[in-house]
Specification:
The chain has 746 residues and is an alpha/beta fold. Helices cover 57% and strands 10% of the residues. Helix 23 links the parallel strand 13 and strand 14.
């Protein structure tokens, strides 16, 4: 694989199916953290067992009450305080009432439980875990000023509240399935006491129902009585207002209707009669006038023919005419008797004529009289109608007053009836529940439940162990596998350098060869030596056309094994036949010099300053073919020594004389000198300590090297526990370490 100089290597993460769980990876995480899981789980389970053993046996007694939906009705009226409903919400409400502090206070006062050490902690001497709990409470109370913790609460009240909470903590109330039965259970250290308190809760619950009904009835009667006095006065005032208004506006009744309306009705009837008479008279008059206009004889007029006077005169006229004819034939027209009869006839005709004229004049008079009557009735009716309009306007207000009076009267009567009903309920109130089973004295303790506690302890132990594993994985910020290097740091993984094998119980190997650079010389076929050969191969093969000769070995932070890597890699290179130089460029700590050339008196700074030649300061290593360029302690350090021309010239000389030059630098994030060295080196190998170096620090160091255009070949994981690394996953070659480790001699 070839690496481009100065360009960061980016490795894409393998796509994963978010919906699938890698069970093998989870299993490896569990195996890797098995000691932690076992320790935490054992501690939690042991604590559960200890707590269970310290628990005092508890006895639970249970009483049963039934909410009876079949209420006996002595009187058919609605109660002031209705009975308990039969729906689930109503029954759940009754359960909450049984568990209320008010009922608990009643039981406490009834049985004087404040004097019982079981509920009053101030009367009990703590023992076992109670001593620890009491000490913890005392410590916490000491942190809170007493005037703040118990402001406005005296000791008696505080004690009563504590006893009430203790009693309620031991009380249970619940429905029995879908029935109307409520089970009241109480837990106590004494079985007889548990039964006594459970029965007290049942008795006082029934008593509280009766008291609630009596109180509600008494409050209702008091309120209704006060309200009736007010309503009675309102009714009297409203009725007086109605009558006063009726009298002021003359709104008198006549047969259930208004007097003016009755008068108008009578006038309308009379007006109809008069109009009919007027119409008949006008009709007769028009008939007479029409006949007269036509020239008809008056004798033919119906009114004339119907006149008794005319008929009498006609009869006389007929008799006189007969006599005249008789006299005319007897005496002649000049006879005095004839003339007398003649005058009589003329007189009769004149009487008839006057009677006819009188009849016609009578018709006209009758029409005029009828018209006057109609006009008079119309005038009177118009006046009454105006009066009716005024009365109707006044009736609007009258009806409003009547409605107000009726509403007040109805409300008063309703309240009066209700007052009579509630007064009769005082002696008829009954509880909505009854006791169906009193609590017997329990024979066996109900707590602690060993099986349940042990099961919960096992479950909590497992959860705590799993939680510890999750926390360790979440906060494990180190670089662990090849995949972490490529995925988290965006760099190539060169090699994983195993840590030296440890003896039983984890002791380091003693004696010669306890350092990796000595170990690889003595065990050239070991796994550690092979890892350094992998690094050397990566350096040589990274650019075949232009082999990298000057390689800087660095790290993000101190203590990541870069000096050990430099020295060990130098020996492996020399053992392979390459002319190799390792040089110490860490001017502050000089760890390579202390390990490889502790007796050196001159070194790099003297060469750069011109005080010595390169050959005068070089130190030969025990391994043939490896030389060391040390850095000796000096009080004077040239300013910006690694950017000087002397350092550039030295690099050119070393590139000509050696096949491989390894530079041990200071940490990238700690010293700026490393950046100048990395920019001038052919390649840079970065050391990362397995599981220890934070990912952010390593990533920041790589970014810094890339910023100065350094050719970062990749990352080397140092001090790797190969067996433990194999449990981190199967993404790298370390997973198969157990399959090929037999190839190594150590």
């Amino acid at each position: 694989m070839a690496y481009n100089r100065g360009e960061p290597q980016v490795y894409a993460e393998q796509p994963a199916d978010d919906e699938l769980v890698d069970l093998r990876q989870l299993w490896r995480i569990f195996r890797r953290r098995l000691p932690v899981f076992a320790a935490v789980a054992f501690a939690v389970f042991a604590l559960t067992v200890i707590v269970t053993m310290q628990m005092t046996p508890q006895y639970t007694a249970t009483a049963s009450v039934i909410i009876d939906p079949r209420q006996s009705q002595v009187i058919d009226i609605e109660a002031v305080l209705t009975g308990v409903g039969s729906d689930a919400q109503a029954l759940d409400t009754e359960v909450q009432l049984i568990q209320s502090r008010s009922l608990a206070l009643a039981v406490i006062n009834s049985l004087d439980l404040t004097a019982d050490p079981e509920f009053n902690d101030s009367l009990r001497e703590p023992s076992g875990l109670g001593v620890i709990a009491a000490g913890l409470r005392g410590f916490l109370s000491a942190l809170v000023p007493s005037q703040m913790a118990h402001a406005g609460i005296d000791d008696d009240q505080r004690t009563l509240e504590a006893v009430t909470s203790a009693v309620l903590e031991r009380l249970t109330a619940r429905r029995s399935g879908m029935t109307y039965v409520i089970s009241i259970g109480f837990r106590s250290e004494n079985p007889a006491k548990a039964a006594r308190i459970a029965n007290a809760f049942a008795d006082l619950y029934l008593l509280s129902q009766l008291e609630a009904k009596f109180d509600a009835t008494e409050r209702a009667n008091t309120w209704l009585n006060d309200r009736l006095d007010v309503l009675r006065e309102e009714v009297r005032t409203a009725e007086q207002a109605v009558e006063l208004y009726r009298a002021e506006h003359g709104l008198l009744d006549a047969g259930g209707s208004n007097l003016t309306e009755q008068q108008i009705s009578d006038l309308n009837a009379q007006l109809a009669i008069q109009r009919a008479e007027l119409s008949a008279a006008e009709s007769s008059l028009r008939s007479v006038q029409t006949q007269l206009q036509r020239g008809a004889s008056l004798d033919t007029i119906g009114e004339v023919l119907r006149s008794e006077t005319i008929r009498a005169l006609r009869a006389q006229q007929t008799e006189t005419s007969r006599r005249r004819s008789d006299l005319a034939s007897r005496y002649g027209p000049r006879h005095p008797e004839f003339l007398a009869v003649e005058r009589e006839v003329a007189d009769l005709e004149e009487q008839i004529s006057r009677e006819i004229q009188r009849i016609v004049a009578g018709l006209e008079t009758e029409v005029n009289v009828a018209r006057q009557r109609v006009a008079s009735l119309q005038s009177t009716l118009s006046g009454f109608r105006d009066e009716l309009v005024t009365n109707n306007r006044a009736l609007v207000r009258l009806r409003e007053l009547e409605r107000e009076a009726e509403a007040s009267r109805t409300l008063f009567e309703s309240f009066l009836n209700r007052f009579r009903q509630t007064s009769e309920q005082d002696d008829l109130a009954t509880a909505d529940a009854r006791i169906v089973a009193r609590a017997p004295v329990p024979l066996e303790p109900s707590a602690p439940n060993w099986l349940l506690n042990l099961a919960l302890g096992l479950m909590l132990a497992g959860m705590a162990g799993a939680g510890a594993i999750v926390l360790l994985e979440v906060f494990d910020n180190g670089v662990r596998t090849e995949a972490d290097v490529e995925r988290e740091l965006g760099a190539a993984h060169i090699a994983s350098v195993p840590m030296l094998a440890q003896g039983r119980f984890g002791q380091k190997r003693s004696g010669k060869g306890d350092q990796p650079y000595d170990y690889v010389r003595e065990n050239p076929l070991s796994g550690i030596a092979e890892s350094f050969r992998v690094i050397r191969s990566a350096i040589l093969l990274s650019n075949i056309d232009n082999v990298h000769k000057i390689v800087a070995i660095t790290s993000a932070l101190p203590g990541e094994g870069k000096t050990t890597t430099t020295y060990s890699l130098g020996r492996i290179s020399a053992m392979s036949g390459s002319r190799t130089l390792i040089m110490d460029c860490d001017l502050r700590r000089r760890l390579l010099t202390k390990a490889a050339a502790p007796q050196a008196s001159k070194g790099l700074l003297e060469v750069l300053s011109g005080d010595c030649t390169l050959d005068e300061v070089l130190v030969a290593d025990a391994e043939q073919g490896l030389q060391i360029l040390p850095v000796v302690e000096s009080q004077f350090t040239p300013r910006d020594v690694f950017n000087s021309d002397a350092f550039k010239s030295l690099m050119s000389v070393l590139r000509e004389r050696y096949d491989l030059v390894l530079i041990d630098t200071a940490p990238v994030l700690a010293v700026t000198d490393t950046r100048a060295i990395a920019a001038k080196a052919d390649a840079v190998v970065m050391n990362v300590k397995w599981k220890t170096t934070p990912r952010e620090a390593a990533a920041s160091a790589l970014d810094t090297l890339r910023d100065v255009k350094a050719n970062v070949l990749g990352v080397t994981l140092a001090q790797v526990d190969m067996n433990a690394q194999a449990r981190y996953g199967y993404e790298g070659s370390s997973y198969y370490y157990k399959n090929y480790r037999s190839y190594y001699s150590g």
